[in-house]
User: Fold this.
Amino acid sequence: MSSVPLLHLENLKKYFRVKESWGRTRYIHAVESAPLDIEGGETLGLVGESGCGKTTLGRTILRLYEPTAGRIFFKGEDITKVDMLPYRRKMQIIFQDPSSSLNPRMTVGEIVGEPLDIHRLAASRSERKERINALLERVGLNSEHANRYPHEFSGGQQQRIGIARALAVEPKFIVCDEPVSALDVSIQSQIVNMLEDMQAELGLTYLFIAHDISVVRHISRRIGVMYLGFLVELAESYELYKNPLHPYTKSLLQAVPIPDPDLTRSRKRTILEGEIPSPMESPPGCRFNTLCPMARKECTEAVPELREVSPGHWAACHLFG
Ligand code: SF4
Assistant:
């Protein structure tokens, strides 16, 4: 196995400039990422509440947003400033809301065929048609759907079309940006199972973003937890459930019902009081200090670094440093 990870992020940061009505310019520090590796063939789950920066991180990795600082390496190559067209074939995204991510004026065949055209992956019209049909069948649709329009499909079917479009270029890495959160619960497991089957068959690597930690638990080998732009904890999926370290992770897990009574008993309750601050008005020091029941003086003075507390288990908290 290669020692070079498929993706390596070196202190990736993304800030958005916001102009206020009275002329003042401020910055939203959306991502203040620590170094992060994603191994080929793994699924890294990324969780956190809305606005924590997980979608921005996914889009910045793909350079849909240009990074403010830091570097992105794909298979050891620095892709932070290169022309991304050749890498678009290798790195794809599945969006959260399938209805708004599909052009309503294009047929399903045109939507799935567009990446084949951009990257010139079909030598003839008949090959293009064959590939579109094969992609539709791969995601549980069929060739008759190719001539229809997105609005004629259910939300689950629209997401299957989005997945077929992502698969068209035979990518290695896919950012799954909350791919099931807009779908009915009954459909969610079908889509997650399909993504798992595709991963086993095609050797795909996923960054699987979700706000619900229970969605990523089973699909992910490791899970990262984000809070206000920072990665605050990273561990193997079971380890994170069994032994969460960061007070924020503990509070997230308390919202999840678990069928294991031993785990339930071993968890102490952490009650959070107050609201998550705006990313524009983040507190100094640890960004969680305004809500953290364990906060102490140094938490308002210094940002805790992400440290390896036990093999493979990382946390950014002064309690572990
Ligand atoms: Fe809480 Fe301090 Fe740890 Fe932040 S660094 S999570 S405020 S104990």
In short: The pocket of iron/sulfur cluster is lined by residues 246-247, 286, 288-289, 292, 294-295, 299, 304, 317-319 (CB under 6 Å).
